[in-house]
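Question (not urgent): is this output format expected?
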Amino acid sequence: MDRHVRPKMRKTETNLEKNMKKLLIILIVMVLISCQSTRTKDAMRAKRMENCTNLTANEIELIKNEKIHPGMSECALIASWGEPYYINKTTGSWGVHKRYVYQHGGPWKKSIYVFVENGVVDRWHD
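Got this back:
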């Protein structure tokens, strides 16, 4: 009787399989880092909110969503967006005028100017 014996196939990983495993590990690490930075960001925002008194329900919602709106308090602005890159301040008979300069973005750092009149956000532009 002639038996054909097949040699045992040794399971080997191809380069594609190895690369896919590496990519999966990198993806998992990135997700974990992202979750950590979100928690850190939320904790920092909560800490800034502690410094504000008499926040309205609307301001609290704006802060949670990192938004600003005309009429919100200066403290709510800082709680929402953090400390600005720079503040220009002018005081006169009309009161206190401040221009907050925020820089967002990568290497080009787009500036956003927020104008605060007597402690209240008036307007902004980039």
